[in-house]
């Protein structure tokens, strides 16, 4: 087994991971391990933008208040303030590496700020309607020209390596990770003084999602298997508006469209959002997704419409050039046609318990971005706070590591990956069947609206599937598909168990058995350990 040695290992090549890597490169050699192509991540698919206080009429206090309101009592006020206050500096960093945000077409050259659901002011910086893509292009380019950063694609992380698991006598800490090199199909190890987990989201746990195929919850699953505490996994945000079309895979209609005046209407033409919330179509995502789900189920409709036909084609082509062109490819002209949309799994507000600076309960191991639970999002993420968090926390993690990493240096011999007498399987159909079943169970029983009965059924079936997957995992050589299946099944159990703990409806978690919100807000926490990487 090949072993690579670096000062710093960053697992994940999204905005949080690359931000951390660029800052860490000032202090040592960095390996960025990317599951697929470096730019294929949730960050690259973010259309809306980055929430940041820019307008003089806006304020830090207002952004904090909006975030706390969206978080439904579970956002940590101190964390919220830390992240929001550091936003402007991170925007400056992006501009210095060539990312250009839209400016008003006037002599003043002020930023063209958008507004999205839950925000009381215009504070969304955007680069056309492909903000995530523009940001990722800048970060990837900055990493690729940096002599201290190696970006290796097609490295799929299997498990973290800790000193406890390899029998080292010192106190437990993270010393790297095992990977499957998808190009050679061989197992390799990366040894590092500090490891940053920035693997992004878990949308592929559900069959309908705005996330790319890489979002299989790998980081949360690995951290759980390593014994780290996992928090608030029941809060899965369903984006209200994904394009409903048989050829449109995971195509998101940005919330910025509603910010520019689009209305949600049912198939009979009724603008229904005012029936559910005084903010109408600018209500937060949890309210909007539940409203759509209710309307669809009430009438037996497969979708609802997003209507922005009151805007001119010239305006829409200018404001949403990529989105307008993409809708046209699917036969929808935004200026003349209502857009058919459905909710889809979009963002995980829970994750590995971590501080704003990425520190976790495991020395040498840091988590940032969507994989982490910092206390920013609480029970519901405010729109466009995710890219803000990724940039701020990725940078803060690197700064923290730079202060402490030399004290963690210690020679450790990593053992080879152990997989017994495993052989290559010809039963790919079994993996595909279990993959589909995990996702179907989650959609049917652990979706936008939940109940005790649905969760009990989901838990029973997922645990059977996890046993089947473990048997299969122990018997055959690991493949990328099998590793992804193991991870989505582990994450599914975490979501179900967290949902069962919360006997109330709060934020993104709605229970028909407990429709009221408890007076006292409390986190859910899972702290057991399902087994090490060598078993």
Which architecture of the largest domain would the CATH scheme give at its second level? 3-Layer(bba) Sandwich
The total number of structural domains is 3
Helix percentage range: 25-40%
Report the uncertain regions.
none
Beta content: 15-25%
The number of helical runs is 14
Structural class: alpha/beta
Distance between the termini: 18 Å
Q: What is the CATH C level class of the largest domain, in words?
A: Alpha Beta
CATH topology descriptor of the largest domain:
FAD/NAD(P)-binding domain
Description of the molecule:
- By secondary structure, this protein is α/β, with parallel strands linked by helices.
- It has three domains: 2-234 and 349-408, 3-Layer(bba) Sandwich (FAD/NAD(P)-binding domain); 240-345, Succinate dehydrogenase/fumarate reductase flavoprotein, catalytic domain (Flavocytochrome C3, Chain A, domain 1); 428-525, Up-down Bundle (Methane Monooxygenase Hydroxylase, Chain G, domain 1).
- It has 14 helices and 19 strands.
- Strands 1, 2, 5, 6, 7, 8 and 15 form a seven-stranded mixed sheet that branches.
- The longest helix is centred in the last third of the chain and has 24 residues, at 452-475.
- The radius of gyration is 22 Å and the shape is globular.
């Amino acid at each position: 087994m090949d072993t690579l040695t670096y000062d710093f290992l960053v697992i994940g090549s999204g905005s949080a991971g690359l931000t951390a890597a660029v800052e860490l490169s000032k202090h040592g050699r960095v390996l960025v391990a990317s599951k697929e192509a470096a730019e294929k991540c949730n960050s690259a698919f973010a259309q809306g933008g980055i929430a940041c206080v820019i307008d003089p009429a806006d304020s830090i206090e207002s952004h904090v208040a909006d975030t706390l309101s969206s978080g439904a009592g579970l956002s940590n006020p101190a964390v919220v303030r830390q992240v929001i206050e550091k936003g402007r500096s991170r925007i400056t960093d992006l501009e210095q590496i060539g990312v250009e945000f839209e400016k008003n077409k006037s002599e003043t050259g002020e930023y063209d700020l958008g507004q999205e659901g839950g925000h009381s002011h215009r504070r969304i910086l955007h680069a056309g309607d492909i903000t995530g893509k523009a940001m990722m292009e800048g970060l990837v380019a900055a990493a690729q020209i940096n002599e201290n950063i190696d970006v290796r694609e097609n490295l799929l992380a299997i498990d973290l390596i800790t000193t406890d698991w390899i029998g080292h006598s010192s106190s437990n800490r993270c010393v790297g990770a095992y990977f499957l090199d998808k190009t050679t199909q061989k197992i390799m190890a990366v040894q590092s003084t500090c490891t940053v987990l920035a693997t992004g989201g878990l949308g592929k746990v559900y069959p309908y999602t705005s996330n790319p195929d890489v979002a299989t919850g790998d980081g949360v699953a690995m951290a759980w298997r390593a014994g780290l505490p996992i928090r608030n996994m029941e809060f899965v945000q369903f984006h209200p508006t994904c394009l409903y079309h048989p050829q449109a895979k995971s195509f998101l209609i940005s919330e910025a469209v509603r910010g520019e005046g689009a209305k949600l209407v049912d198939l009979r033409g009724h603008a229904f959002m005012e029936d559910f919330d005084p903010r109408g179509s600018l209500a937060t995502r949890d309210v909007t997704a539940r409203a759509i789900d209710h309307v669809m189920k009430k009438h037996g409709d497969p979708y609802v419409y997003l209507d922005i036909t009151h805007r001119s084609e010239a305006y829409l082509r200018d404001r949403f050039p990529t989105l307008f062109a993409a809708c046209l490819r699917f036969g929808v002209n935004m200026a003349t046609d209502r857009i058919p949309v459905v909710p889809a799994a979009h963002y995980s507000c829970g994750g590995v318990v971590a501080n704003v600076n990425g520190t976790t309960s495991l020395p040498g191991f840091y988590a940032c971005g969507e994989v982490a639970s910092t206390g920013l999002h609480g029970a519901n993420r405010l729109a466009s706070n995710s890219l803000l968090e990724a940039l701020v926390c990725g940078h803060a993690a690197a700064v923290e590591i730079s202060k402490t990493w030399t004290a963690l240096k210690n020679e450790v011999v990593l053992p080879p990956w152990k997989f017994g007498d495993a052989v290559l399987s010809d039963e790919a159909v079994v993996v595909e069947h279990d993959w589909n079943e995990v996702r179907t169970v989650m959609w049917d029983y652990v979706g936008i609206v939940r109940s005790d009965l649905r969760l009990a059924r989901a838990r029973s079936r997922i645990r059977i599937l996890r046993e089947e997957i473990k048997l299969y995992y122990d018997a055959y050589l690991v493949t990328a598909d099998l590793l992804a299946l193991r991870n989505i099944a582990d994450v599914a159990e975490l979501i179900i168990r967290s949902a069962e703990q919360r006997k109330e409806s709060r934020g993104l978690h709605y229970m028909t058995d407990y429709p009221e919100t408890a007076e006292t807000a409390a986190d859910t926490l899972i702290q057991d350990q399902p087994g090490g990487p060598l078993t």
